[in-house]
Amino acid sequence: MILQQPQLHQQQQHLWGVPNEPPAPAPVTRRLSEEEVPPEILEALRTHTIFQRSNNPQFLEQVACSLVCRTYGPRDVIIAEGEPARAMFFILRGSVDVCSPDSERIYATLGRGACFGEIGILYSMPRTATVMARTATTVGVLTADKVAALLPAYPDVEQILRFEAQERLALLQKTKYTKAHDEQGKMPGARQLLDKVSFFHACPEAFLHHISLRVEPRNYVPNSTIIHKGDIGTEMYFIVDGKSTVQVTTHEKSDAGAAVARLGPGGYFGEIAILLDMPRTAYVRAITTVQVLVLSKADFKQVCTHYPDLVERFKMLADQTLQKINQQVNNHCAADFVSADRQDLSTARLAGIDANSVCSTSSDQDPTLPETPTSHLRERETRRRRPSIAVWSDPTLLAVANARVREISPPPSRPSVSPVSPAIPTTTADRLTSLDPSILARILNSLDLASLVRFSLTSRYCKLFVDTDERVLQTVDVSPFNTSMADDVLVSLSRLVGGRTRALSLAKCYHLTDQGIIQL
Questions:
Q1: What gap in Å lies between CA 500 and CA 189, rounded to an integer?
Q2: Cβ count near 311 (within 10 Å)
Q3: CA pair distance 482, 166, nearest whole angstrom
Q4: Domain 39-177 is of which CATH architecture?
Q5: How far apart are CA 464 and CA 467, in angstroms?
Q6: Cα separation of 80 and 99, whole Å?
Q7: In whole angstroms, what is the distance from residue 264 CA to residue 284 CA?
Q8: Interacting residues of 154 by C-beta distance below 8 A, sequence separation 6+
Q9: What is the Cα–Cα distance from 51 to 37, expressed in whole angstroms?
Q10: Nearest in space to 76 (alpha carbons), one of 9, 128, 23, 20
Q11: Tens digits of per-residue pLDDT, 445-485?
């Protein structure tokens, strides 16, 4: 570290803003040893991407011993656009804005772990932008002379530094010509963002460098549609900031669309159309203001021509994503228990059966079905009652029989225990329908909502039991279906559960609005 460097600053300060001892009358310049470097500086430098990518402890120590620390207050100008480049800067604490000379446009916001000023000293060109302290900021200053003396001994580090300078210059030039609504974008270096994208995990350094040179920044306002299902895709997108949703609905503005995923910073989409040469498989809509890096299909294929192995890997990843989307769509269709099958079940109730239309002295059992304990009971009951048909003409006996029927019959508000024409004539179905209603209700209450719906589809009796029994659906959890839980689905669900539900969980149901809650 340089203790005194009059041409760079007027007053030497400690790393954390505490003034040092007054300078000696005769300025003395000397290099600190490794033991004399404050550990705070070494720790702060290790967070910088250039040192993480180079993984060279010796170079890190050389830079730490050559740094001069400066502290800036908020809104202080660190470098100005157009002035000669004499040093590069490492942010040790705080954050800075890369902006226009009048500070009206902010091209990027850099925080701890970033560096700036390397473009000018590596390519011997004036400053390309103004950098202003956003908060109280401490930077480490490395002069151009020190950079020129250090880099020749570390060619790998020099290549990384030149790559980053090229990428930042290319992105800065593209950002300067964005539209007016993009003026407040806070976008760091492209390479720093692409390193966080799982799609490019373990890719070569040179490949990521060429990709970083070709991406361009773009912003989308909330509720705008970024891509449309069915379109021919020519671009893929990498999310820098904001949140978006992936939907497969037939109309991009439908609130009840099947949202199969939510994407945030580090997410990507659009690769299926580029790699598999097929139309867009879903809509992608911005939930908040979304900043993305856009890579065209032509640029992507041009870079990939030199990396055939990566192309096969990317195609495999795109195919896996396509399969996941299809699986999510299938799950959504199966779980759409209200808008389709479930809605039909809730409205198509079993009509009341007229007692006069039912012959109580016959058993219409299908002869092709296997014998069950229930059928044996019916046969015995039928044989016992057939010889006594004539006695029902006596009014006294009829009154006694009706009173006996009322004693052994269940309450009218609950379904009968006897199975009503099971749709699945199996031994398992018979065992379920022969259970006591209270036991069956306890079993159903231990099931999740999707399993409960599937149970109701097994027979007319099961459907009637789920629709009408007061002991079922007292606790409902729809959080597993949060991506498909929209306002109209919630309203239809409320028609199904009626007034039985005592506890309803809507965790993570982000698509619900106040209108749906009010209707509920």
A1: 56
A2: 14
A3: 44
A4: Sandwich (2.60)
A5: 5
A6: 9
A7: 12
A8: 54, 56, 59
A9: 17
A10: 9
A11: 888 888 888 888 888 888 888 888 888 888 888 888 877 77
**Full strand arrangement of the beta sheet holding 87-93:** 68-72, 137-143, 87-93, 115-116
Name residue 427's amino acid.
T
Under 8 Å between Cβ of 116 and 96? yes
Strand 244-247 with 259-263, pairing: antiparallel
Cα(196)–Cα(213) distance, integer angstroms: 17
Angstrom distance (rounded) from CA 394 to CA 307: 96
Token pair belonging to 502:
């005592």
Residues 283-311 have pLDDT tens digits of 999 999 998 999 999 999 999 988 888 88
Mean confidence (pLDDT) of the chain: 74
Tell me the per-residue pLDDT of 313-340, one tens digit each, with 9 for 90 and over.
898 988 888 888 777 666 665 555 444 4
Q: How far apart are alpha carbons 85 and 120 in whole angstroms?
A: 5
Nearest to 266 by CA among 284, 289, 291: 291
- What does the H/E/C string look like for 283-331? EEEECCCEEEEEEEHHHHHHHHCCCHHHHHHHHHHHHHHHHHHHHHHHH
pTM, to two decimals: 0.49
Of residues 385, 474, 375, the one with CA closest to residue 434: 375
421: tokens are: 């024409």
Q: Provide the pLDDT confidence category of residue 173 given band limits of 50, 70 and 90.
A: confident
How far, in Å, CA of 447 to CA of 474, rounded? 12
Structure tokens of 44?
A: 């702060």
Predicted local distance difference test score (pLDDT) of residue 131:
94
Tokens at 53, concatenated: 């990518």
Per DSSP bridges, beta strands 137-143 and 87-93 are antiparallel
Q: Report the alpha-carbon distance of residue 238 to residue 254 in Å, rounded.
A: 25
Report yes or no: 246 and 263 within 8 Å, Cβ to Cβ.
yes
Strand partners, 227: 284
Q: What is the DSSP letter of 353?
A: P
CB atoms within 10 A of CB 390: 7
The rounded distance, in Å, linking the Cα atoms of 369 and 511 is 48
Amino acid at 5: Q
Q: Using alpha carbons only, how large is the chain's radius of gyration in Å?
A: 36
Greatest Cα pair distance, the chain, in angstroms, is: 132
358: three-class secondary structure by DSSP? coil
The predicted-structure confidence for 232-249, as pLDDT tens digits, reads as follows 989 999 998 899 998 876
CA pair distance 319, 271, nearest whole angstrom:
10
Tokens of 399: 């009154």
Calpha distance 89→138 (Å, rounded): 10
* DSSP helix/strand/coil, 222: coil
Stretch(es) of the chain classified as CATH 2.60.120.10:
39-177, 214-330
Q: For residue 383, give both structure tokens.
A: 């044989």
Q: What CATH fold (topology level) applies to the domain 214-330? A: Jelly Rolls (2.60.120)
Residues in the chain: 520
